[in-house]
Design a protein that fits this description.
Elements (H helix, E strand, L loop, with lengths): L3 H33 L6 H12 L2 H11 L3 H24 L3 H21 L9 H17 L7 H7 L2 H39 L52 E5 L6 E3 L1 H6 L3 E8 L10 E10 H7 L13 E6 L4 E5 H4 L6 E6 L2 E2 L9 E3 L13 E7 L22 E6 L5 E2 L5 E8 L5 E8 L5 E2 L1 E2 L9 E7 L5 E11 L22 E6 L1
Parallel strand pairs: 1-10, 12-19
Antiparallel strand pairs: 1-2, 3-4, 4-7, 5-6, 5-10, 7-8, 7-9, 11-13, 13-17, 14-15, 14-18, 16-17, 18-19
Helix pairs in contact: 1-4, 1-6, 1-8, 2-4, 2-5, 4-5, 5-6
Bound molecules: the ligand Nc1nc2c(c(=O)[nH]1)N[C@H]1C(S)=C(S)[C@@H](COP(=O)(O)O)O[C@H]1N2 and molybdenum atom.
Length: about 525
């Protein structure tokens, strides 16, 4: 016969397991609920989204630096770890305080429901996944701990391991089935929206992109290609769940200060308008010197200025009262763009196509903004649903509330793509030093390379279709001395301004400094 001590341990372990199973059941039921309501209503995305929105900029910057695009899985993993600890705690306390612990599960459900209800675009139904989940979790905890919450002496008699294990097993199986059902329903909905997107035939552009000069791409190994494929295009956003918008229930509204005729467009309305196609380079303000958050795509879209003029909007220079255009997305992002810039004749687009297909879901389907010359956080709202004319004095957009600048034109930058850091080069063998440089809307006029702080050598810039794209460059180097060498690059924009060597961080309006690569010559 086992000693009392061992039995207590077994009961404690069973209680802890009950807590975990309760949380698992809650999440599974919530997953199923969210599949029917909307994915963002699930407690994990809702709480995660709330955490993202409240993360201090310094912490967010650290997370992006440490984990890059993996910051989101890391956040969800962090939430799951905390949830697991709470679940273990509630399970253990159910040993003595069954009612309180069960109520605790309910309280977490209420919290989840409250947070889900506060998320952008949420309706009353967004509370359902958390509430149903909490009910399931509370029920499971109450049921599994039924024979535990008594005095030790009683419980030692009442607790039957076999009965408990059968119950626990049933709960586990039920949770897996429920969670899987949720996944299946959710995936099914996304698949049907994806199938709809796949059937879209984008119209032929009224104004095709100017033909690319033959020499835009130097086709060197290790050098970023001039055109970035959708699969390779960087992604930066706050969305824990990539919005899958059904265009049949989608519209875009233009309204606000100085708008004579508020307008609303359906997806088909947009596709019926004359579309223009442009190669444009997009850059993120969070891109460190030498970083990867930059890419060039062929965008298809409506000229933003046309839509604004149709709504009766005048830029500030022509007496318009609004100097800020705030774009809003279905996931609650707000991005503020100077009206003057949107209407100054540059190819500011309300884009529907990217590299010959409808926008990928990750890149803003069904419609997004692309404004050459401005960092993404002040110009490139994805999953767009609303354009409001207002003033910078009256309204701060999402990132501006979080210490970033109101206005952020792109700073001239250049990057060495090849050779890679710490590459081994051979003495006496010529090697191409190559990369990309960008200064959208001003254009890159020249690129220079220096070795070990020596004289600046002119690199050969590739062709470009306009001033709105990045520019490849190459400089051939024949190493003559063994050892480590530092290769540095700088670009000059078309105004004649040379890229500064002054190192500043990404906050508040973009990093400066020069990219360099250290190589070993043997
Ligand atoms: N809805 C929404 N749009 C957004 C963002 C976002 O977080 N949410 N991020 C912006 C930022 S900071 C950048 S740099 C670009 C990146 O666009 P991409 O992910 O298509 O490369 O999208 C912009 N548009
Ligand atoms: Mo960005």
């Amino acid at each position: 016969m086992k000693g009392i001590g061992t039995r207590r341990w077994i009961r404690a372990g069973s209680a802890a397991l009950s807590g975990l199973l309760s949380a698992g059941a809650a999440l599974a039921v919530a997953e199923l609920g969210a599949a029917f309501v909307r994915p963002e209503a699930g407690p994990l995305p809702a709480v995660g989204g709330a955490v993202v929105d409240r993360t201090p900029p310094a912490v967010k910057d650290w997370a992006v630096r440490e984990f890059g695009t993996d910051d989101k899985p890391m956040l969800l993993a962090g939430i799951l770890v905390i949830l697991t600890l709470i679940a273990l705690g509630l399970g253990m306390s159910a040993l003595r305080l069954r009612r309180t612990a069960t109520a605790g599960v309910g309280a977490f459900g209420l919290l989840g429901a409250f947070v889900a209800h506060q998320r952008p675009g949420a309706g009353l139904e967004d509370v359902l996944p958390s509430l149903l989940g909490a009910a399931a979790g509370a029920g499971v905890l109450w049921w599994l701990t039924g024979s535990m919450a008594a005095t030790h002496a009683e419980a030692d008699r009442a607790f039957d391991r076999r009965t408990f294990l059968i119950g626990a097993g049933a709960v586990a199986v039920g949770s897996v089935l429920t969670g899987t059902a949720g996944r299946v329903v959710g995936n099914g909905k996304r698949a049907s929206i994806a199938a709809f997107r796949n059937r879209i035939r984008l119209p032929v552009p009224a104004e095709p992109a100017p033909p690319l000069p033959a020499g835009v791409d130097l086709h060197l190994p290790g050098l970023s290609s001039f055109a970035t494929s959708n699969a390779d295009f960087y992604r930066v956003d706050t969305a824990l769940v990539v919005p899958h918008i059904d265009v049949r229930n989608w519209s875009l509204r233009i309204h606000g200060k100085g708008v004579r005729t508020p307008l609303t467009f359906s997806y088909d309305d947009l596709l019926r308008r004359p579309l223009i196609e442009r190669d444009l380079t997009l850059t993120c303000v969070s891109n460190e010197v030498g970083g990867p958050y930059v890419g060039t795509a062929r965008w298809l879209g409506v000229r933003l200025a046309d839509l604004l003029r149709e709504a009766g909007v005048r830029p500030p220079s022509r007496g318009g009262p609004a100097d800020q255009l705030v774009s809003r997305s279905t996931d609650g992002m707000t991005i503020g763009t100077p009206v003057e810039v949107a209407m100054d004749g540059r190819d500011a687009l309300l884009a529907v196509g990217m590299n010959g297909e409808p926008l990928p879901f990750e890149h803003g389907y069904p419609a997004r903004m692309v404004v050459p010359g401005l960092y993404g956080y002040v110009s490139a709202c994805k999953w767009l649903t609303d354009l409001e004319l207002t003033t910078f004095a009256d309204y701060d957009a999402y990132w501006v509330k979080r210490t970033w600048s109101r206005e952020a034109p792109i700073k001239t930058q250049s990057r060495i793509d090849t050779p890679k850091p710490f590459a081994r080069l051979r003495i006496g063998t010529p090697v191409p030093i190559a990369g990309v440089a960008w200064a959208q809307h001003r254009g890159v006029s020249g690129v220079e390379v220096a070795v070990d702080g020596g004289p600046w050598q002119p690199a050969r810039p590739a062709d470009v279709p306009s001033s709105d794209t990045w520019r490849q460059w190459v400089w051939e180097w024949t190493p003559t001395t063994p050892g480590t060498h530092r290769i540095e690059v700088r670009a000059t924009d078309s105004t004649g301004a040379v890229q500064t060597d002054k190192r500043v961080g990404t906050v508040p309006d973009g990093a400066t400094g020069r990219h360099s690569v250290v190589v070993t010559v043997t």
